[in-house]
Amino acid sequence: MNEWPYERSLSANLLHLTGLHINDINYTDVIKFEETLVSDYLRHIGEFWKYLTGLCLLAGENGIEILSQ
């Protein structure tokens, strides 16, 4: 994952915050997760950012670090 492009790595970390173990996340999972994020973002931009912010805040320090990026 450290060798992935920045956006993919960020998506993998967000996916990890949803409860998946970081070592179980593969590139295909990240692509599907990104497609869902983009779809939700385009349909409901305000709700998307509330969801993303809430997810990061619930994850504690790691989530706050991701949110600050």
Low-pLDDT residue spans: none
Q: Can you count the beta strands?
A: 0
Q: Helical region count?
A: 4
Into how many domains do the coordinates divide?
Answer: 1
Plain-language structure description:
There is one protein chain. With 69 residues, the protein is mostly helical. 74% of the residues lie in helices and 0% in strands. It has one domain (6-68). The chain contains four helices and no strands. Helix 1 (6-17) crosses helix 2 (27-43) and helix 3 packs across helix 4. The protein is globular, with a radius of gyration of 12 Å. The two termini are 17 Å apart. The mean pLDDT is 84.
Outline:
By secondary structure, the protein is mainly alpha-helical.
Topology overview:
Elements: H1 6-17, H2 27-43, H3 45-58, H4 61-68
Helix pairs in contact: 1-2, 2-3, 3-4
Features:
69 residues; 74% helix; mainly alpha; single chain
